[in-house]
Design brief:
90 residues, alpha+beta, Aminopeptidase, 5-stranded mixed beta sheet
Length: 90
Amino acid sequence: MVAEVIHEQNRFTKTVEGMVCELEYLMTDNSTINFHHTYVPDALRGKGLALELIKKGLDFAVSKDLKIIPSCWAVSKFIERNPDYKEYLR
């Protein structure tokens, strides 16, 4: 069974091999989302899990027509490499 990304209370998570990976965010107002923290356990790094969480989070923001603040360096880097999201930056 492949683990799915779950959206729950201001974060996106994926559990792999019993370890939780996460992308956390805050709503700064009704129209702006701040992605401020991404975490993947050391044993799972390099497998694209952070990228999967970030894409899911950004796609959520776009679907809700939210402006994005990428406080987390990983989210910022992802947007640099995927310029389709730049128009949503605040």
